[in-house]
Design a protein that fits this description.
Rieske Iron-sulfur Protein; four-stranded antiparallel sheet; three-stranded antiparallel sheet; elongated; binds FE2/S2 (inorganic) cluster
Length: 161
């Protein structure tokens, strides 16, 4: 299932962005082409927080020993090994399948890989008839979803203008 997890504007070029979604601690960044990437926020080498590292040439660089990872979680460079040696393939960070369009970032949540991009309201996308609203609630996301569903399905709920 696709889940909208971020606004595109939250993830800027050139710096990591830490987010917790669906019980996962994640780091987002943009590669050299501006494509959004995400890994589990813990380096597979010694568990340092990748979000405290840097974006270098479109890769995320761990702040501890400087390993560099691509968006698939592969180690691309290990400074102590130099550029001539191939990094070990067993050190792989968990990656996430993302889709970005209309200013929204979706994450694939569940088994396997998606067969199609997320559905969007085709009649709305050109009208910009949707908006974002930000508010932090210090509760479980399940309580927040439940609360909002109740507000919009309660029989006496009416919208006045
Ligand atoms: S902890 Fe990340 S490179 Fe060592």
């Amino acid at each position: 299932m696709w889940i909208a997890i971020l606004s595109s504007r939250e993830v800027k070029r050139g710096r990591p962005y830490r987010v917790q979604r669906m019980g996962e601690d994640m780091v987002f960044w943009r590669d050299g082409d501006g494509k959004i990437m995400a890994l589990r926020n813990y380096c597979p080498h010694r568990q340092a927080l990748l979000s405290q590292g840097k974006v270098v040439n479109g890769l995320i660089q761990c702040p501890y020993h400087g390993f560099e990872f691509d968006g698939a979680g592969n180690v691309v460079h290990v400074p102590a090994m130099g550029r001539s040696q191939k990094p070990p393939s067993y050190l792989k960070a968990k990656s996430y399948t993302l889709y970005e369009q209309y200013g929204i970032v979706w994450m694939w949540y569940g088994p396997g890989q998606p067969e199609a991009p997320p559905k969007f309201f085709d009649d709305l996308k050109d009208l910009e008839a949707y908006a974002e609203y930000w508010e932090t609630w210090n509760i479980s996301f399940l309580r927040a979803v439940e609360n909002q569903l109740m507000d919009f399905t309660y029989p006496s709920y009416t919208i006045t203008r």
